[in-house]
Input
Amino acid sequence: MGTAALLKKVQARLHIRNQLVRECLAEMLSTFMLIIITLGSSAQKITSSEIKGNLITSYLGGALAVMVGVYTAGGVSGAHMNPAFSFAMCLLGQFPWWKFPIFVVVQILASFISAGAVYILYYDAIWYYSNGTLTVSGPRETASIFATYPADYVSITNGFVDQVIGTGVLMVGVMGILDARNKAVPKGLEPVVVALLVLSIESSMGANCGCPLNPARDLGPRLFTYVAGWGPEVFRWVQRRG
Output
């Protein structure tokens, strides 16, 4: 049996026929790509004391990660990568409600796994930078590699409003980009334009809370830090650096 025939036979055996399973795996892969690049850019910035990265590279990493995620699996699952986007699609009747909780679980799980991958990738750097202590606040905190924390002047109310407005702008922008009745984006370049949208929001609305814009992007990695040694403090309203 030739190599080509063998590969074709293996491919046929590995082919997943169940559409829901395929969509879930695609959504998991796209969310994984989004979060690993986003958190990786943050880890590079923080653990190098901003020598090998800064706020701009972190924003670029997060924006380009959206583009990579959409190109990775957009044709199979739609690459929602965000419970807020899945919810908006349900409200518009473009996504079935019964799939919504399934996608949310998949997105959070993928984010959790991505956080673990970044922790492994930057394990030595994290422990070296933190002087062997995993903290949520202070000059050597590393929790903000994985989850976003508010500035010390931001109240709970202002933080809530910040996220509602930021996520709302993201949803309206994405819907406008995908609406065929608007000025059309060249076919195949929609992910690039969405990435630019994310970059614009990060650059204008990131000061208060770090601009997560995505419940899965924040909750999955935050859960990881809780179990990986940062402890319950990751769920408290704390200063990012103090």
Summary: Residues 19-235 form a domain with the Glycerol uptake facilitator protein fold (CATH 1.20.1080.10). The chain has a mean pLDDT of 90. The chain has one domain: 19-235. The longest helix spans residues 19-47.
